Amino acid sequence: MIKKASGYLGVFCLYLLSLLPFWILYLISDLIFFILYYLVGYRRKVVQENLRNSFPEKTEEERRQIEKKYFKYMADLMLETIKSASMSEKQVRRRMVCTNPELMEHYFSQGKSIIAAAGHYGNWELACLTFGFLTDKKRLVVYKPQTSEIFTDFFNRTRSRFGTTMISMKQILRKMIEYKNELTFLVLAADQTPARNEALYFTTFLNQPTAVFIGVEKLTTIRDCVVIFYRIDLVKRGHYTYTFVPLIEKPKDTKPFEITKIQVSYLESLIREKPEYWLWSHRRWKIKPSDVAKPVFFD
C-alpha cells in the first residue's frame, strides 16, 4: 500500500514539474547534469565501457568528450520527457517537426501499412506524441512495460494524448492480426535488449556481438508492410526534426535476416554520426553469445 501511494505521489510530482516553463526546466537540467556527472557519477563506468568497446579507434579524450556530451543531453532528455506530459499540441508541433510526412500518405495511398523502426536516439518520447498529427490511420506504438505499473500507465497516457495507441510487446502479434484489414503505422524500438530467454539472434553492432530482436522481420511475415526508419536530429536545445527513411519496400523479396541487418546497420550509422544522442547508460551488451545455448549469428 505504501509503495502504491509513493508511486502515485511520484507521478503527481512529475506532472507538477511538467508545468514549469522550459527555461526553468533547463536550469534544473544543468543542475542534474552537474550532480549526475561530477558528484554521483551515475553509471559512468557503464557509459565508459560501452564507448570504449564501441569506438576502439577513438582516443580516450574523444570518448571522454562524447561521454560528457551524452550526460548533458541525458539530463535534457529527462526533463523534456517529463515536460511532454503537459505540453500543448502547438508546443509539440513547434518542437518536433517531421520533415517528410507526405511519405506516410504515399505508402497508404498504395494500400500499404508501415512499420517504423526506431532507436533510443534523440527525444523518441516527443516524437511519439506527434504521430497523432500525421495521419488518421491507426497509429500503434510498442512499449516495454516498466516494473512500476503506475509509472507505465503515466507515461503511456502521456504518449497517447494525441491519438496514438500503445501496445505492450507481448500483444504485438495479436494486435497486428486484429488490425490486418486496416492500414496501420506501427512503431517499435529496434535496439531493445531481448530478455535472456529470448536472446537467440546475434549480429555485430558497434564492434560487438549483440543480441537483437527480429520483431520487425517477423511482423512483415504477417503483413506485407513497408519498413522505414525514423531518424531524429537535434536542431537546437529542445527543438528537433525527424525524417522517415525508407528501408524496405518489398519485404517478401528479402532474404532471412536481411531486414534486421539493414535496420541495425542504419541505426549504427546514425549513432556513429552523432553518438552523444544515443542511450549509452543502458546495459545493452549484458547478454553474451556464451550465455545462450544455441545462438544464431548473422552479419
Structural overview:
Helix 8 links the parallel strand 3 and strand 4. The mean pLDDT is 92. This protein has one domain. Helix 1 packs across helix 4 and helix 2 packs across helix 4. The N and C termini lie far apart (49 Å). It is globular, with a radius of gyration of 19 Å. The chain has 299 residues and is α/β, with parallel strands linked by helices. It is built from 11 helices and 10 strands. A 7-stranded mixed sheet has the order 1-9-8-2-5-3-4, sandwiched between helices.
Unreliable stretches (pLDDT < 50, length at least 5) are none
Mean pLDDT: 92
Category from helices, strands and their pairing:
alpha/beta
Give, in order, the helices and strands: HHHHHEHEHEHEHEEEHEEHE
Strand content: 15-25%
From the alpha carbons, calculate the radius of gyration and give it in angstroms. Answer: 19 Å
Sheet with most strands: 7 strands, mixed
Gross morphology is globular
Distance between the termini: 49 Å
Number of strands: 10
Helix content, binned percent: 40-55%
Give the total of domains: 1
SS field, number of helical segments:
11
The main sheet orders its strands as 1-9-8-2-5-3-4
SSE blueprint:
Layout: H1 2-18, H2 22-40, H3 44-54, H4 60-83, H5 89-95, E1 96-98, H6 102-108, E2 114-118, H7 124-134, E3 138-143, H8 149-159, E4 165-168, H9 172-178, E5 184-189, E6 201-205, E7 208-211, H10 215-222, E8 226-236, E9 239-248, H11 258-273, E10 296-297
Parallel strand pairs: 1-9, 2-5, 2-8, 3-4, 3-5, 6-10
Antiparallel strand pairs: 6-7, 8-9
Helix pairs in contact: 1-4, 2-4, 3-4
